[in-house]
Fold this protein.
Amino acid sequence: MQAANPSLIAENLACRRGERLLFRRLSFRLEGGAACHVTGANGAGKTTLIRALAGLTTPYAGSVVREGALGLLDERTGLDPDLPLGRALAFWEHVDGCTSPDGAITILGLGPLLEVPVRFLSTGQKKRAALAALLNRAVPIWLLDEPLSGLDTETIGKVIALIRLHVGGGGIALIASHQPLDVPGMTSFAIEDFAPAPEEDHA
């Protein structure tokens, strides 16, 4: 469901991977109309942060407070690999109460692929399919983990335009990406800025 005033707040967040402390003392507050770009090297904790914000993993310390429904885009499509793409998308359209799915399918060029089983789609095609499912959820908070990976230049432009449109309409987007993003007013931080000192690493 849409929230009239969505927000996503992290307070003194810390996360581990195994015995390793990835980051600590990470705080931010995003209100409707805000975009935030999280950068960092592979393994630094970007995906762990996204999963903590989505409620899929429990932070080692700190808290996450969210107002409004969220949608997560990561390396998993969430689509049944054995179904044709059209039916796989239709399942979630029914669950999410989407009454006009054709717009996302058209924007992302998925029309010719609707009869192809999801498992046969390329990496880029699966990413576009997952984006279509996200658009059709109509949730105010987007958590995007490397949303541009595997996409061609034209599709990257479309995805950035969709992020700008979402934020411009009062939504929130937090994007973890190695690639530059041209989104007006977007803030950014490097996950390494919150890395622990050596003596804290296994604290």
